[in-house]
Specification:
Shape: globular
Largest sheet: none
Number of helices: 16
Number of strands: 0
Helix content: over 70%
Order of helices and strands: HHHHHHHHHHHHHHHH
Distance between the termini: 17 Å
Length: 396
């Protein structure tokens, strides 16, 4: 859906702009700010996680201090130029891919009984320990916010389209690669973990990859994996600073945020938007000092809930704009049209919407889900009192 809209209208504001064109200014305002707030929260989450790893290597550095040090590092990279951001991502991505491929390869060999000293578990870990889905569908729904947070980031391709030399070509290539990379690397590595280890093993909740390698007798490899995971989280932090600042920049450009956030430096980066986003992330990191046991989980849940609003806005805007384009005789560029339009788009809306409603109904997730919904409604109300926008995104 994002590929279709981004090729037709490449813009740094991405889906906030598309929601605005489809439903009006209020929708773009809500979508943009809800998406933005999720990124500083995500930056704080990964800063705490990577800071915890760094604290394990150097115990003298507290987790919060390590987290702030890493936030400062990725902020400096983003303040340099877009090129510095891209170079860092390029090398870290290849490091991650190489290690994950090796992990999946060794894991599948163990699952098949081909690894010496490790008997094949078969389906014992999937069907045993309380059976398949031991906590029923409620367990799956409660895990959805964490899973959605983990999948967030793929939409950055739409945000980056506004800075690409050839947006159509870049978006087509990235969209295809995202689909198969998620399938192979993300789902493949998780499949290895759940096949080799029971879901209720204590070590799985702490570090599933390291626990799997320890189970296979590869303790030394778990140290290497920890280094790669650290690099991966720093890479994610780098992207979070980029995405949050560009969304703020687009909101300021459309007069949905203070004009100062739309100014760019001599290196053509939105410096004020970067610093403002990082400031919120730093405030969230400091929660680690006040609530060291609950801060991390609370941030993950909150960040995951903001994505329900974002994904619903993407799907809804694509349905409206897709129909508008097709009625005008404009067919999506080759390789970017939404599959089975509009039926699959409506299925996405119904699935995401039903999941969000389920989280509101369930007691364990009700407060966080209602908080996200309340924030979205409040933003819609605030949008009614904004000054009239400029001509930018409204022209389509």
């Amino acid at each position: 859906m994002l590929a279709e809209m981004s090729v037709a209208r490449p813009d740094t504001g991405a889906f906030a702009v598309y929601a605005r064109l489809a439903f009006g200014r209020w929708a773009g305002f809500v979508s943009g700010w809800m998406y933005w707030v999720g990124w500083p929260l995500g930056l704080a989450i990964d800063a705490i996680a990577s800071g915890t790893i760094l604290h394990g290597w150097i115990p003298a550095i507290p987790v919060w201090a390590a987290a702030l040090l890493l936030v400062a590092a990725v902020t400096a990279v983003n303040l340099m130029s877009v090129r510095a951001y891209g170079e860092m991502e390029f090398w870290v991505v290849w490091l991650k891919v190489a290690v994950i491929v090796a992990f999946i390869g060794v894991g599948l060999a163990a699952v098949g009984g081909l690894l010496p000293g490790t008997p094949s578990p078969g389906t014992a870990n999937l069907l045993g320990h309380g059976g398949f889905l031991p906590h029923g569908i409620a367990g799956v729904l409660l895990a959805m916010t964490g899973a959605m947070f983990s999948f967030s980031g793929s939409e950055i391709v739409a945000i980056a389209a506004g800075e690409a030399k050839d947006p159509a070509r870049a978006i087509r290539g990235c969209t295809r690669s995202i689909l198969w990379r998620v399938t192979v690397f993300y789902l493949g590595s998780l499949a290895v973990v759940v096949l080799l280890l029971p879901w209720d093993a204590g070590a799985v909740g702490e570090s599933p990859f390291a626990a799997t390698l320890t189970h296979l007798g590869l303790d030394n490899a778990s140290t290497l994996l920890q280094i790669v995971l650290f690099a991966a989280m720093v890479s994610t932090m780098n992207s979070q600073v980029y995405a949050s600042s560009r969304m703020l920049f687009a909101l300021a450009r459309d007069r949905d945020a203070p004009a100062a956030l739309g100014r760019v430096s001599a290196a053509s980066v939105p410096r004020n938007a970067i610093l403002f986003s990082v400031a919120l992330a730093v405030a969230c990191v400091m929660l680690q000092l006040v609530h060291p046991t609950s801060a991390f989980e609370g941030l993950v849940t909150t960040a995951g809930n903001t994505l329900f609003i974002t994904w619903l806005s993407v799907a809804g805007a694509q349905i409206v704009l897709g129909r508008r384009e097709r009625r005008a005789g404009r067919i999506p560029a080759a390789g970017t049209g939404m599959w089975l339009f509009p039926w699959l788009s409506w299925l996405v809306v119904l699935t995401v919407g039903a999941t969000f409603v389920s989280l509101i109904v369930m007691e364990d997730s009700r407060v966080e889900a209602l908080s996200a919904l309340t924030a979205a409604v409040a933003l819609a109300g605030i949008s009614r009192f904004l000054p009239k926008p400029g001509s930018g995104a409204d022209l389509g």
